[in-house]
UniProtKB/TrEMBL annotation:
Keyword Transferase belongs to the record: yes
Protein name from the UniProt record: Class I SAM-dependent methyltransferase
Species for this entry: Rugamonas aquatica
GO molecular function: methyltransferase activity
Keywords carried by this UniProt record: Methyltransferase, Transferase
């Protein structure tokens, strides 16, 4: 066979193998896209179900603010609401205000008593939450506390966390919901909730940590497990991850 013909055949085979490789890669990508689309659709459906369940559970007369982006997801809110509805005359503390404040305040209203205290470092978000509470007629069941981030020292390290100076001198809390400070504040930004607030939990109290599937929150949970072994940890299935801690 002439050298030129042999070279041409070799080049043609190489091109054919390359095209087949690329086609196989595209084929695999299409399957991945299909699977991801199905997963996303199923996840969206679950959130719609949870949102509908939340409206039914709370018998709301006005619409809630959006539950996408930084806000707590419907499945997390429903998980918290169902537990809060079992409490009577509860004292609830929340780290970060927003839609969860409305949900918890409505639970207290339906329960016939109880109070929510929400720590918020952003004055704009605090004002928005207060306006939403008034819109829903829930201002008597929740207080949004302006709590700018201030440095706290733990093991020689500084953590910017909510200033507790304005928090009323309450003896203990029955429910603690942790959805702040923002992750961008520093590594393991929500860790201080443990040493600062866990000692003030009542017997049988419950703690909910949002975004628990993130590496930062997983690291926090490991630290809390070592430092507070009396708190049993579990993980209800939620979109962004949810950790549930109970006082024995």
């Amino acid at each position: 066979m002439p050298i030129l013909a042999y070279t041409g055949l070799t080049l043609l085979l190489a091109i054919s193998f390359y095209i087949l490789h690329k086609l196989r890669h595209v084929h695999i990508l299409l399957y991945d896209v299909r699977d991801q689309t199905h997963h996303d659709q199923a996840g969206l459906f679950r959130q719609l179900e949870a949102l509908q369940g939340l409206y039914i559970e709370l018998d709301l007369k006005h619409s809630l603010p959006p539950t996408r982006g930084w806000a707590a997801s419907p499945d997390f809110l429903l998980e918290v609401a169902r537990h809060a509805r079992t409490l009577k005359q509860a004292t609830v503390l929340e780290c970060s205000s927003g839609i969860s404040t409305l949900v918890l305040a409505r639970c207290m209203q339906l329960n016939g008593g109880g109070k929510v205290y929400s720590l918020e470092h952003d004055v704009h978000f605090a004002a928005q939450t207060r306006a939403q509470l008034r819109r829903h007629g829930l201002q008597d069941f929740a207080t949004v506390i302006d709590a700018p981030l201030t440095p706290y020292d733990f093991d020689g390290q500084s953590w910017p966390w909510y200033d507790l100076a304005q928090l009323p001198e309450l003896p203990s809390f029955d429910l603690l919901v942790i959805d702040g400070p923002p992750q961008a504040t520093r590594a393991q930004a929500r860790y201080p909730a443990g040493p600062l607030l866990f000692p003030r939990l009542t017997a049988g109290a419950t703690v909910y940590l949002d975004d628990a599937s993130r590496p930062d929150e997983q690291a926090i949970l490991r630290r809390w497990r070592q430092e507070f072994p009396a708190l049993a940890q579990s993980s209800p299935g939620c979109e962004k991850g949810c950790a549930l801690l109970r006082v024995g």
